[in-house]
C-alpha cells in the first residue's frame, strides 16, 4: 500500500488483463467474462474382457440444471439486486497484518450471496428452485467402451456437467479403470498368459485348450520331440488385444511356461530315467580325492525371504551403532 492513498480495488490488475471483472467471475462495471463450469470426473471399472470385446454401460447420474420456471433467474420477476456484502463481485477480501510493513490479502466467496454477487428478496424467490437458480435432474448416460481402449483412457461427454447461470457448462469425464484378470496380463496391445506344465509334459510334449477373452477355444500344443524349458515363452500372432480404432488389427499373445517338478523320486524311477536320459557327467576326481574333501549339508531356502532377513539384520546392526555414545567412534588410537 502506498502512503496516503485510499483503498484500491484488489481486482484492478485482473481487469487490465481480462478486460473487466475478476478472473473468478465477479461483476464489474466494464462487463462480465463468462466462466466455465468445473468438469465432473467419474471412475469406471471395466474388465479385460470389456476392453477386448467392447461394451456399453448405462449409468444414472444426478446433476444441476437451470430452473425451467424462472429460466435460471432465481426470482419470479426475473429481477435481482446487487449484494451489499460484496458489492456484486461475489468475493470478499480480507486483509491481515503480518508484521511491520507486511500485509496478507486473502479472498473468499461471499457467504451472503454464495458467490453470485446478487441477492433475491424472500417474497420474490422462485417457488421451484427456492432462489438457487438450478434444480437437480436425473440423467442416464450410455458409455461406449470401444475395443482396444486402455486403462486410464478418458471418455468425455461435453457439456453434461452441472449447469449454472452465466457459466459455460463443463464436461462429464469417465476414466477407465481395468480390473485385474486371474489369467491374462495386458502390456500395450499384447497379452500374456501363464501356464504350468508337468515335468512329463515339458519333456515329452503337451497339449491344452486356452479359453480366450471372447470365449474362443484355442488349441495350444508343442512340436514333436520339443523340450519346453522352465521360464520359456511362445508367441501367437494376431491373438493379442485389438488395437484402438483399428479393431481388426491385434497384437501378440505370449504364453509363459513354468514347469512343475516332482518333490522326490524313488530309486526305481531314478534308474528308469537314467536309462533314457543323457548320461551324467563323468567325475574328474578319484574316489581317494573325494574322500579327502569336506562333506557339507545343504538345505532349501526361499531366497527372497533370506535376502529380506539379511537386510533387516544389517539395519538393526546399523541402528545399534548409532546408539553408541560419541557418535559410534568406539576405536581410538593409543596416545604415546
UniProtKB/TrEMBL annotation:
* GO BP terms, alphabetized: protein folding
SUPFAM superfamilies xref list: DnaJ/Hsp40 cysteine-rich domain, HSP40/DnaJ peptide-binding domain
The reply to whether Zinc-finger figures as a keyword in the UniProt entry is yes
Query: Which stretches does the record call CR-type zinc fingers?
Result: 54-138
Recorded hits in PROSITE patterns, A to Z, give: ZF_CR
Q: What PANTHER family does the annotation carry? A: DNAJ-LIKE-2, ISOFORM A-RELATED (PTHR43888)
What protein is this chain from? DnaJ protein
- Could you list this entry's UniProt keywords, alphabetically sorted: Chaperone, Lipoprotein, Metal-binding, Methylation, Prenylation, Repeat, Zinc, Zinc-finger
| TM annotation in the entry | none
Q: Where is this region: Disordered?
A: 305-336
Amino acid at each position: 500500500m502506498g502512503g496516503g492513498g485510499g483503498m484500491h480495488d484488489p481486482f484492478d490488475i485482473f481487469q487490465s488483463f481480462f478486460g473487466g471483472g475478476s478472473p473468478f467471475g465477479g461483476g464489474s462495471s466494464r462487463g462480465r467474462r463468462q466462466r466455465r463450469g468445473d468438469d465432473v470426473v467419474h471412475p469406471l471399472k471395466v474388465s479385460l474382457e470389456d476392453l477386448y470385446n467392447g461394451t456399453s454401460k448405462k449409468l444414472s447420474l444426478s446433476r444441476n440444471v437451470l430452473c425451467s420456471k424462472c429460466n435460471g433467474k432465481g426470482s419470479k420477476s426475473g429481477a435481482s439486486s446487487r449484494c451489499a456484502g460484496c458489492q456484486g463481485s461475489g468475493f470478499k477480501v480480507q486483509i491481515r497484518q503480518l508484521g511491520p510493513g507486511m500485509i496478507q490479502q486473502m479472498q473468499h466467496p461471499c457467504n451472503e450471496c454464495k458467490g453470485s454477487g446478487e441477492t433475491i428478496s424472500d417474497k420474490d424467490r422462485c417457488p421451484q428452485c427456492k432462489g438457487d437458480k438450478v434444480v437437480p435432474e436425473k440423467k442416464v448416460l450410455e458409455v461406449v467402451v470401444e475395443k482396444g481402449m486402455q486403462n486410464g483412457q478418458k471418455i468425455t461427454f461435453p457439456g453434461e456437467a452441472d449447469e449454472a447461470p452465466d457459466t459455460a457448462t463443463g464436461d462429464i469425464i469417465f476414466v477407465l479403470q481395468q480390473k485385474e484378470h486371474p489369467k491374462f496380463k495386458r502390456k500395450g496391445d499384447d497379452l500374456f498368459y501363464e501356464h504350468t506344465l508337468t515335468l512329463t509334459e515339458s519333456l515329452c510334449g503337451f497339449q491344452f485348450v486356452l479359453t480366450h477373452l471372447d470365449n474362443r477355444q484355442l488349441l495350444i500344443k508343442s512340436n514333436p520331440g520339443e523340450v519346453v524349458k522352465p521360464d520359456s515363452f511362445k508367441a501367437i500372432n494376431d491373438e493379442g488385444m485389438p488395437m484402438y480404432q483399428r479393431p481388426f488389427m491385434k497384437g501378440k499373445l505370449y504364453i509363459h511356461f513354468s514347469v512343475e517338478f516332482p518333490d522326490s523320486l524313488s530309486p526305481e524311477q531314478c534308474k528308469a530315467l537314467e536309462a533314457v536320459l543323457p548320461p551324467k557327467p563323468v567325475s574328474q576326481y578319484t574316489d581317494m580325492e573325494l574322500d579327502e574333501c569336506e562333506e557339507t549339508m545343504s538345505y532349501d531356502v526361499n531366497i527372497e525371504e533370506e535376502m529380506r532377513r539379511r537386510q533387516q539384520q544389517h539395519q538393526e546392526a546399523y541402528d545399534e551403532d548409532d546408539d553408541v555414545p560419541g557418535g559410534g567412534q568406539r576405536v581410538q588410537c593409543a596416545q604415546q
